[in-house]
Amino acid sequence: MALAYSEKVMEHFSNPRNVGEIENPDGVGEAGNPKCGDIMKIYLRVKRNVIEDVKFKTFGCASAIASSSMATEMIRGKTVDEAWDLTNTAVAEALDGLPPIKMHCSVLAEEAIHRAINDYREKHGFDVIPMKDYGDEHEVCPV
Ligand code: FES
Question: Which CATH number fits domain 7-125: 3.40.50.2300, 3.30.70.100, 3.30.160.20, 3.90.1010.10?
Answer without folding.
Answer: 3.90.1010.10
